[in-house]
Design brief:
With 673 residues, this protein is an alpha+beta fold. It has 21 helices and 18 strands. Helix 6 crosses helix 7 and helix 18 crosses helix 21.
C-alpha cells in the first residue's frame, strides 16, 4: 500500500517535528491495533479496505498542482485562463497510487480535482480550477475520505459490540477546551462543543434539579450559577444571528472575505457582553484579525484568518461522483449520496454540519441518564506529582463544581414518585401496606414511620418523596433485603411443605394399592405419611453415617420395635434412604446434651431386600427378608404402627432403580434367624 515509504515521505506527515516519539514503538503499536480489530470482530476485508483508504489519503497528499495558462478568444476578447494540472511525474505517480487504492479511474480523479461542474438553471458548465483551488479541493477530498472512514469504523465497532437488549451504556470522552497562542476555526468548533456539553451538564445537574424542587413545593434556597446558554447562542443562534450564521452568510457572497466577516462581527456583535475585539480603538494589522469570546472556561482569542476557507470545506459533486464510480465496494458505500440526483442546493458548510452534529449529540445525551467523571488537570507540563494550585482552582471554578457541590449538599440525594416508592418498599410497612397499600402518600408515611426515619431526613413533594441523605436510602434498602429474605423463606417453606404433602399423599395412595385389602385392619394405611418422624437432620451420629455413605435424601425414619432371637423387644431407629436401610441401636442412656444415643448396627443395601412378609391379621408385624451374600446375620422381625409407610418407601425406592419388591401376605411368618 505504502510501497515501503516512511513518515518522512508523505507531505501530510512530515510538516511537523520528528515523527518518532520517545518510548513508543510504531511496529508494536500497529500490531496492537491489528489485534484489537480482530478482537472487536472486524472482518479482514473491512480492515484491509480501511488501511487502503488511509494509504490513499497519504498518497493524495503528495499530489501537488502547477498552473497551465490557456489563451482563448480573439482580438479584444482574447484572454488568458489559468488551469491547474499535476505538477510533475512525482505528483502523477502519487495520484495513480491513490486512484488504484480507491478503485477510481486516475483520469476521472484528476479531472475531479482540477475542474468543477457548475449548474446554473438549466445550463451546466465545467469550470477549471487554478492550482490553489485544486490543492484546496484535494485537501477537502482527503478530509472527507478520512472522516467517512472513521465514522464507518465507529459504526462497525458499535454493530459488533451491540447487545441484544434495549438498554445500552455509552462512554463520551470529551476533548478538552483548547486555548492556543493562535486559535482558529477548529478551536472555535471544539470550544463550542465544550460549551454545549457544559450546557447539558448545567441543565441536568443544576438547573433541572432546582426547578424540580420549585415545582414540587420543596423548601429551597436557590444556588446561583453561571448558565452558559448565552455563550452557546452567541455562536449558533440564527435570530439574532450568531457567529456561525454570519460566517455562513459571508461564504455565500462571491466576494466574501475574512476581513468583511470581521467587519460584520464588529458591527453586530460588539454589544454582546461575551464578545469583544481587543484594542478596538487602536487599529493595526494584528488587532484587526482578532476577536475574543468569553467562554465559560475563560477568554479565548481567535484569529479570523482562514475562517471562510475552512468553513467552505465541503465536497464538490465531481468528487462525490468519482468516489461513487469506485470499483471498491467499501469506498463506494462511503458515498451513498453519489446515487442520488445532484441537488441544486448549496452544500452545507463545515460549521453548519458541526452544529447539526452537536444538536444530535445533545439530543442523545438528554435521552440518557448521564453520570459524570470530571478530570482535573493538575499542571500543563504533564508531570506526575506536580500540582499547580492556580490551574486547578481555575478549572474547579469554570466547571461549576462548587455550585454543583452546593446544590448536592443542600439538596436531596434521592427522589421518586410515591407510587414507585411504595411499590419498592411496601413490605416494610406491615399489614397497613402489605400486600395492599391504599393511598400512595399515606402508605409512604406509614413506611417511613415504621422504619424509624426521622422527619428531617425527608420532605414530601406534590408528587414525590425526597430523601436527603444516601445513608437513609441505604437503611431502607438493607431493611428491604432482610424482609425479602424473610418473605422468601416463608414462600420456600410453604412450597416445600406442599411438595412434601403431595409426595406423601401419592405414597399413601401407592400403599393402599399395594395392600389391596389383604390386611384386616388398615390403620397404618390411613395414617398421615410424614417421612422423617424423628428429625434425623438434628441427630449428629445419624448424619455422620449418612454422610459417610453419601446419602442425600431420607424417605423414612422412625423408631420401630425389633424382636430378637430370644423373643425380646428392642427399640431401634429404622432409616430408609434411596440406597439402603439403616438399623440404629437406640441407647436409653442420655448423651451429654440430654439426647438419646444412636449407634449403627447394620446397613442393608436395598438390592439385598428380597421380600417383605406381613400377616393378614390386625397386627403391626413385618419381616424383612434379606439375601446378603457373605453375611450370616438373619432376617428382621419388626413391629411398627407405620409398617405401610415403611413398605411403600422401600417399594418406591426399588422401583426407581428398576427392581421389584415381593410382598408376601401369609398367616405363617417365616424368617431366617
Amino acid at each position: 500500500m505504502l510501497q515501503g515509504c516512511g513518515p518522512k515521505d508523505f507531505a501530510y506527515l512530515n510538516n511537523g517535528a520528528d515523527s518518532t516519539v520517545k518510548g513508543m514503538n510504531d511496529t508494536k503499536e500497529f500490531r496492537i491495533v491489528e489485534e484489537a480489530t480482530r478482537d472487536i470482530g472486524l472482518s479482514d476485508d473491512i480492515v484491509t479496505s480501511m488501511w487502503e483508504l488511509i494509504s490513499a489519503v497519504l498518497w493524495l497528499g503528495n499530489a501537488t498542482f502547477g498552473t497551465t495558462s490557456n489563451k482563448s478568444g480573439s482580438g479584444k476578447h482574447k484572454r488568458t485562463q489559468s488551469t491547474a494540472s499535476l505538477d510533475g511525474n512525482t505528483s502523477a505517480e502519487a495520484l495513480d497510487n491513490a486512484a488504484s487504492l480507491l478503485g477510481i479511474d486516475a483520469g476521472m480523479l484528476t479531472q475531479a480535482l482540477t475542474h468543477r461542474t457548475v449548474t446554473a438553471g438549466m445550463e451546466t458548465m465545467v469550470k477549471p480550477l487554478n492550482s490553489e483551488e485544486a490543492l484546496y479541493t484535494r485537501d477537502a477530498f482527503c478530509k472527507a475520505l478520512y472522516s467517512k472512514n472513521f465514522n464507518q469504523l465507529v459504526l462497525e465497532i458499535n454493530k459488533n459490540i451491540k447487545g441484544s437488549g434495549e438498554l445500552n451504556i455509552g462512554i463520551l470522552d470529551i476533548y478538552g477546551f483548547e486555548i492556543f497562542e493562535v486559535n482558529s476555526f477548529e478551536q472555535l468548533c471544539i470550544n463550542f462543543c465544550n460549551e454545549k456539553l457544559q450546557q447539558v451538564f448545567i441543565q441536568l445537574t443544576l438547573k433541572s434539579e432546582q426547578d424540580e424542587y420549585k415545582s414540587e413545593g420543596i423548601e429551597w434556597t436557590p444556588v446561583d450559577f453561571f448558565n452558559n446558554k448565552i455563550v452557546c447562542d452567541l455562536v449558533e443562534k440564527k435570530k439574532p444571528a450568531g457567529i456561525l450564521a454570519y460566517l455562513d452568510e459571508e461564504c455565500v457572497y462571491p466576494n466574501g472575505s475574512d476581513n468583511s466577516l470581521m467587519s460584520k462581527f464588529k458591527k453586530n456583535l460588539l454589544k454582546h457582553k461575551h464578545f469583544e475585539v481587543p484594542n478596538n480603538k487602536v487599529r493595526s494589522s494584528k488587532t484587526d484579525t482578532l476577536f475574543v469570546i468569553k467562554h465559560f472556561a475563560g477568554d479565548v482569542k481567535y484569529c479570523i484568518d482562514g475562517f471562510l476557507e475552512k468553513n467552505r470545506d465541503t465536497l464538490f459533486r465531481d468528487l462525490i461522483d468519482a468516489a461513487g464510480s469506485s470499483s471498491n465496494n467499501y469506498v463506494r458505500n462511503l458515498f451513498p449520496e453519489a446515487n442520488s440526483k445532484a441537488s441544486k442546493k448549496r452544500p452545507p458548510t463545515a460549521g453548519h454540519q458541526f452544529k447539526v452534529s452537536m444538536a444530535d449529540l445533545v439530543k442523545t445525551l438528554m435521552a440518557c441518564t448521564p453520570h459524570y467523571i470530571r478530570c482535573i488537570k493538575p499542571n500543563d507540563q504533564k508531570r506526575s506529582s506536580t500540582y499547580n494550585e492556580d490551574r486547578v482552582t481555575h478549572q474547579v471554578k469554570y466547571l461549576g463544581l462548587l455550585e454543583n457541590v452546593k446544590v448536592k449538599r443542600a439538596g436531596y440525594a434521592f427522589r421518586t414518585t410515591y407510587f414507585d416508592f411504595v411499590k419498592r418498599y411496601k413490605m416494610l410497612g406491615g399489614k397497613a401496606t402489605w400486600p395492599n397499600s391504599g393511598d400512595d402518600k399515606e402508605a409512604t408515611t406509614t413506611i417511613l414511620t415504621t422504619c424509624g426515619i426521622l422527619s428531617d431526613e425527608f420532605q414530601y413533594g406534590r408528587t414525590k418523596i425526597f430523601i436527603r441523605q444516601p445513608m437513609t436510602l441505604f437503611l431502607l434498602e438493607e431493611q428491604r433485603d432482610r424482609k425479602l429474605h424473610d418473605i422468601a423463606n416463608i414462600i420456600n417453606s410453604c412450597y416445600r411443605a406442599w411438595k412434601a404433602r403431595k409426595f406423601f399423599l401419592e405414597l399413601k395412595e401407592l400403599s393402599m394399592a399395594l395392600f389391596g385389602g389383604q390386611k384386616r385392619r388398615r390403620r397404618s394405611i390411613h395414617l398421615y405419611f410424614v417421612g422423617d418422624y424423628v428429625n434425623c437432620k438434628e441427630i449428629v451420629n445419624v448424619q455422620k453415617v449418612l454422610h459417610k455413605f453419601n446419602e442425600k435424601k431420607i424417605l423414612f425414619a422412625d423408631k420401630v420395635t425389633k424382636i430378637n432371637t430370644k423373643w425380646k423387644s428392642e427399640t431401634r431407629l429404622l432409616v430408609c434412604t434411596e440406597k439402603a436401610l439403616y438399623n440404629f441401636d437406640v441407647n436409653s442412656k442420655k448423651n451429654f446434651f440430654g439426647g438419646e444415643k444412636f449407634k449403627l448396627q447394620r446397613r442393608m443395601p436395598l438390592e439385598t431386600i428380597e421380600k417383605i412378609s406381613l400377616s393378614t391379621y390386625a397386627d403391626n408385624y413385618f419381616v424383612l427378608g434379606l439375601a446378603y451374600p457373605g453375611d450370616k446375620r438373619g432376617d428382621y422381625l419388626m413391629s411398627s404402627v407405620r409398617k405401610a409407610e415403611i413398605v411403600t418407601a422401600v417399594k418406591n425406592a426399588l422401583d426407581e432403580v428398576g427392581r421389584n419388591l415381593e410382598l408376601v401376605f401369609s398367616n405363617k411368618l417365616e424368617w431366617r434367624r
